[in-house]
Design goal:
The protein is α/β, with parallel strands linked by helices and 677 residues long. The protein is built from 21 helices and 29 strands. It comes from Erythrobacter litoralis. Its cofactor is [4Fe-4S] cluster; [2Fe-2S] cluster.
């Protein structure tokens, strides 16, 4: 580890560190535009200049210079100050003076660094400024490329993180332009992250354009519920409306990225909302009040309160499911289920249905078998982790219909029988691997592949002790629903799944935002929909009780790797809508049963007493994997994946105009007309 001196302070830095990293370790702020911690080094903005001895008597780009033994680095000399002023002056020569109308205003790196490191005055007089025609990058990214300073962050992100070579540079020198090839829309699931990366206002959010300034917004820490990754986000709200969602840095979960759906579905929070009670009378849904609805539910149950069931949707928080389970238990019923689409895999041991390697751990795997999972659509933020593993030399094998992986992989067909008789190429790769891993997706779970897959744990030695003494568990199940692992921890599942619930023929069915389930088997039941959008579940309901969305309530969520996380309330629910637990608490009074809680705090405490792991943020411990069933055989062909349209997987996204446009334009190649047309 080399020792360097930064402005007179001697520090020790890791081998391979750059001068810029050494300066930051010493607590010195180094301005930069092109350098980013998660991207390759470009060294083309020249803003990070420092003076280094021994070396030539001139400023040097600290981002591209390796730190070496006995280097003397100066960040505060007159030479460095003058050099940074000169670079900033060159950057501003062609930059338009449109800060008052630029959406980056108030959170712009160029503004901040011009203030801190620029000259006090301008020498610009009447020279012509360079101008660049606007580019079209799709329905999410607004471009004003005259502002572009050619840092190439967007280019490097698309190539290195997303793995889609859609953005690049054309021409040279003063004529250089950043654009998508043939000016097509950027069509991948992480495209909008270039907006966060852009240090100026060249790439901004098209749906958010001219909506608000950053200092007007209230920031609330939340969790993305569009999939089971549990990305950490910040909801920015103005008044009673969520204006945008931005990623928060969490290296263990989403690093600092966010999927386009998690970022842009928020406009659906104010559309197609349920904001009053509705009851079906004479085949039509008519307005009603809470008292009428509760009376109708109680009357339909009669004296036999045990004939009630509850099905939880994909975006429900743990507190809501616990409140529902407690209510049903008080009524004498145990008819609860959260796997609304009908899956029936064994949940007696949660380690068998968990992403045990962890998202950061899968990066270090050197051989990965993916069975029945379209990872780009089911967990868009896990896909870059797999790309890192492949870059480090990992071999990837896939079972299922083909999709564009963006990395080198070998397809083994769609027949699950390959799990019974392992192909030689896969067997040899797994045998040679030091960190073998397997990922089982929703399509494989639906075909009953969990038990046969567990047989491969011993065959491939997926659970082992590594050379450094740490434990390795390479068996992973990748869920798609934000509520899935939380529901399994709470026991909100039955051995027979939805078929068991339908077989019991309950008089009342409580649907907790369950919009993907089949309501036909419950034709004779009173269907009570407790949700926030007028989606499929509301259309099938006899009674609609308006509830709060994830942005309108506090709640606990558990992601697919068993990580317990807490989301805070950002805004209030519209109209008569109430938080789900309050609706269930009021229903308990109407049914004349006691649930043991009167406040959200009491509800949380009761939940934590029953499942202590839900009270501790971080990875839950599910113990060891179960013993495999030696008689289990994989059978069937994976014909398709569960997700048919990445942008329209939940009621919030289906209500979002932005997501509808993305679906039409990016997936179905429809030409979206402008208003004037």
């Amino acid at each position: 580890m080399p020792k360097v001196t930064v402005d007179g302070q001697e520090i020790e830095v890791p081998a391979g560190a750059t001068v810029l990293q050494a300066c930051e370790m010493a607590g010195k702020e180094i301005p930069r535009f092109c350098y980013h911690e998660r991207l390759s080094i470009a060294g083309n903005c020249r803003m990070c200049l420092v003076e280094v001895k021994p070396g030539p008597p001139k400023p040097q780009a600290s981002c591209a210079l390796p730190a070496a033994e006995n280097q003397e680095i100066r960040t505060d000399t007159p030479m460095v100050k003058k050099a940074r002023e000169g670079v900033m002056e060159l950057l501003l020569i062609n930059h338009p003076l449109d800060c008052p109308i630029c959406d980056q205003g108030g959170e712009c790196d160029l503004q901040d660094q011009a203030m801190a490191y620029g000259r006090g005055g301008s020498r610009y007089t009447r020279e012509n400024k360079r101008a660049v025609t606007e580019k079209y990058m799709g329905p999410l990214i607004k471009t004003i490329m005259t502002r572009c300073i050619h840092c190439t962050r967007c280019v490097r992100f698309s190539e290195e993180i997303a793995g889609v070579d859609e953005i690049g540079a054309l021409y040279r020198g003063e004529d250089m332009q950043i654009t998508t090839y043939l000016e097509k829309a950027a069509a991948h699931e992480l495209s909008a992250n270039v907006i966060d990366l852009c240090p100026v206002g060249a790439l901004t959010s098209r749906p958010y354009a001219f909506e608000a300034r950053p200092w007007e917004l209230k920031r609330t820490l939340s969790i993305d519920v569009s999939d089971a990754v549990g990305a950490n986000i910040s909801l920015h709200s103005k008044g009673r409306e969520v204006m945008r969602a931005l990623p928060r840095i969490n290296d263990d979960v989403n690093e600092e990225w966010l999927s386009d759906k998690g970022r842009y579905q928020v406009d659906g929070l104010v559309k197609r909302r349920l904001d009053r009670v509705w009851m079906r009378k004479g085949g039509k849904l008519l307005p009603a009040n809470w008292g009428e609805a509760f009376e109708a539910i109680s009357g339909h149950l009669g004296k036999d309160k045990s004939s009630i069931a509850a099905v939880a949707g994909d975006m429900v928080d743990c507190e809501t499911m616990f409140a529902a389970k407690t209510l049903l238990k008080a009524c004498g019923s145990d008819l609860v289920e959260a796997r609304q689409t009908g899956m029936t895999y064994d949940v007696s041991n949660l380690a068998a249905v968990n992403f045990n390697t962890g998202f950061s751990g899968i990066e270090t795997a050197d051989c990965i078998l993916i069975v029945g999972s379209h990872i780009r659509w089911e967990a868009a933020l896990v896909h870059p982790r797999l790309r890192k593993a492949v870059k480090a030399g990992a071999k990837v094998f896939l079972v299922g219909p083909e999709w564009d992986t963006t990395f080198e992989a070998e397809w083994l067909g769609s027949d699950l029988k390959v799990l019974n008789r392992v192909p030689k190429a896969l067997g040899d790769a797994m045998k040679a691997a030091k960190r073998p891993a397997m990922i089982l997706g929703g399509a494989a779970l639906a075909k009953g592949a969990l038990a046969p897959a567990l047989k491969l744990v011993d065959k491939f030695k997926l659970v082992r002790v590594l050379e450094d003494g740490s434990a390795w568990n390479g068996f992973n199940v990748l869920h798609m629903a934000a509520a899935r692992m939380g529901s399994l921890m709470l026991g909100f599942a039955r051995e027979g799944g939805m078929a068991d619930i339908a077989k019991a023929s309950p008089k009342v069915l409580l649907s907790l935002g369950a919009d993907e389930m089949d309501y036909e088997p419950f034709a004779d039941a009173l269907k009570v929909y407790i949700g926030h959008h007028g989606d499929k579940g509301a259309h099938a309901a006899d009674i609609i009780l308006p509830a709060a969305s994830y942005a309108e309530k506090d709640g606990t969520y558990v992601n697919t790797e068993g990580r317990v996380q807490f989301a805070e309330k950002a805004v209030f629910a519209p109209g008569d809508a109430r938080e789900d637990w309050t609706i269930l608490r009021a229903l308990a009074d109407a049914l004349g049963v006691s649930v043991g809680f009167d406040s959200f705090g009491e509800l949380q405490m009761a939940m934590m007493r029953e499942v202590p792991a839900l009270g501790e943020e971080g990875l839950a411990d599910y113990g060891e994997l179960p013993k495999a069933d030696a008689s289990a055989k994989a059978d069937g062909v994976i014909e398709a994946y569960p997700i048919k349209d990445f942008y329209l997987t939940n009621p919030i996204a289906r209500a979002s105009a932005v997501m509808q446009r993305c679906s039409a334009e990016l997936l179905h190649a429809e030409e979206v007309k402008e208003a004037a047309e």
